[in-house]
Amino acid sequence: MLYAEIAVEAARSLGREAYTYAVPASADVVPGHRVWVPFGPRGSYGYVLDVHSRPPDRAVKEIERADVEPLLLPHHLQLARAVADHYWAPLIECLRAFLPPRVRAGRSSGAGPSRRQTRHSRLLQVSRPEGAPQAGPELNWEQSAAVQASRECRQLLLHGVTGSGKTEVYLRAAEEALGQGLRVLILVPEISLTPQLVARVAGRLGRSAAILHSQLTELERAQQWWRIRRGELDVVVGSRSAVFAPIPRLGLICLDEEGSSAYKQDRTPRYEASWVARRLTELTGAHLILGSATPSLATYAEGRTGRLRLAELRKRVVGRPAQVELVDMRREARSGNRSPISKRLSEVLERTLAQGEQAILFLNRRGAATFILCRDCGESTRCPGCSVAMVEHLELDALSCHYCGYSRPVPEYCARCGSRQVRGIGVGTQRLEGMVKKLWPEKRVLRLDRDSSRGPDGYLDVIEAFSEGRADVLVGTQLVARGLDVERVTAVGMIDADLPLHFPDYHSAEATFALVSQVAGRAGRGVHSATVVVQTSNPDHYSLRRAAGNDYAGFVADELPSRQRFQFPPFAELAVLTYSHRDDERAASVTRDAAEGLAAALLKQRLDGIRVQGPAPAFLHQLRGQYRWQVTIKGEDLGRLRPLAPGGRGWSYDVDPAG
Predict the structure, then answer these.
(1) CA-to-CA distance for 24 and 3, rounded, in angstroms?
(2) Across the beta sheet with 2-8, what order do the strands follow?
(3) Could you tell me the pTM of the whole model?
(4) pLDDT over 70 percentage in the chain
(5) What's 323-368+427-562's CATH class?
């Protein structure tokens, strides 16, 4: 008789990886099959991990039914295991990441067309090519060398300045893979997944592309998943989670904007898509191209030391580099200008708009006012469940917490001292939009942030309107920093470049350099000269100076010594263990005991090269009513410590944290 080891959905919280079930003679199951098994009072779905003939030491129940074909491909189980081991995640959670919710649920799964389907996302509508494949431009010698390098190695880091033609390298490599009967996966940060990109990929490759994106409905995601699983589509374009797509005969993975924090999942399993992509190439034999103007320092270090093949594109193939100017906002304040728009930025905008060209203003803060403050006693209005100030939103006529969603009316008086001197402090994209409209009332202004782009295809509508010239100024958050390629944009203003520098995170300088570089790259895409104004109170900081000079190598040389001195990646591995509880003292006590236990275990088992730091309150000490305390682990081969890590309700792990 055969037996199967099964990861059971209903056992997610129990901490046990697999349960043994008997395989009935009428069932034909292999690893990767989804099955229905008796578990608890009602039964549960599960996934077959292994089939064997070893009799268990106790009586076991039988599998009740199984799908006709396995849902998971053979390499999926290996990849799920690798993700679980590296990120200290339960295997069942990693397996769930491979399947859309409707497919996991097994009902109305989207395996076929639906008569009740009323919405068809625009990304899907433009994913079908019109006519024969379009010819691409002639490659320059740097691009040709990069394509050749991608043929010669399994994993390539393509480091190219903004506008250097990295996408054309992806497309040439994709054409070759498709010509060999293989399939292609193109990964981009979610905000870069626009109709323009999808139409370009489908048009150039002459094939319909599958789209995997959070803006699709659950039904659409399931339908796309099934078409990929059945091999109906040879090209898949998607955001982070598309790295788990069921692509048979995978030949090429192109991951654009490597180093973007958008590739890091913020819930269990807390994977990073480029790490998963690299394991995927090892399991399938596919080639991988990691492309970016600002790759992560850890990845770039691998390219410099030979662990990754490195190809560089140093010249732009479209437009010309914009002139980047740093404006010291301290001088602006001393001269009497209290506006968030400096005199220099105002001049640049005035000139640009007078010439009929377009401008982008970037501010990574939503809402109208950053916080509400009592001018008499200094009390700010904070979220009762999170340790953050609430943000004013004009369209709600209320305050909102950007972490848990709690909202309340704007207070008329201070809850602490009763004063009516309660005012909004700071500026967000909503207030900035209003200021621009007042300064240039005849110009068309759009705003692109999470608030303005809600609803089906909301952010696509804004991007499309601006790209087609139906607006003169675009005000936005991170949504405008990547993926926009508009030739008429000749002015970009970064309202507050210091925001990333203020975070207590070793990535802060790297995040600042990358953000300024990406925002500046939105200008200079056409034939006209372009200007980027970066407003800062730290104009001498090396990350800003290097970004203004488009000097990635110089930034790396400035940043690596401090990383080495304090043993941060790429010189050490990092993991953060977080415990959450409604009682702050309880959270602190449990975390303190865990830190002491880990330190003692390191000594007892003689695990050298690992340090335990903390406990300490998390940067967001209170989140959604839970107090959070952390233990940080730093060193070499941290996987050795996983069996000793604290577990159970309240604990979460973040290996290779993004921030």
Answers:
(1) 9
(2) 19-23, 2-8, 44-52, 34-37, 65-66
(3) 0.90
(4) 94
(5) alpha beta
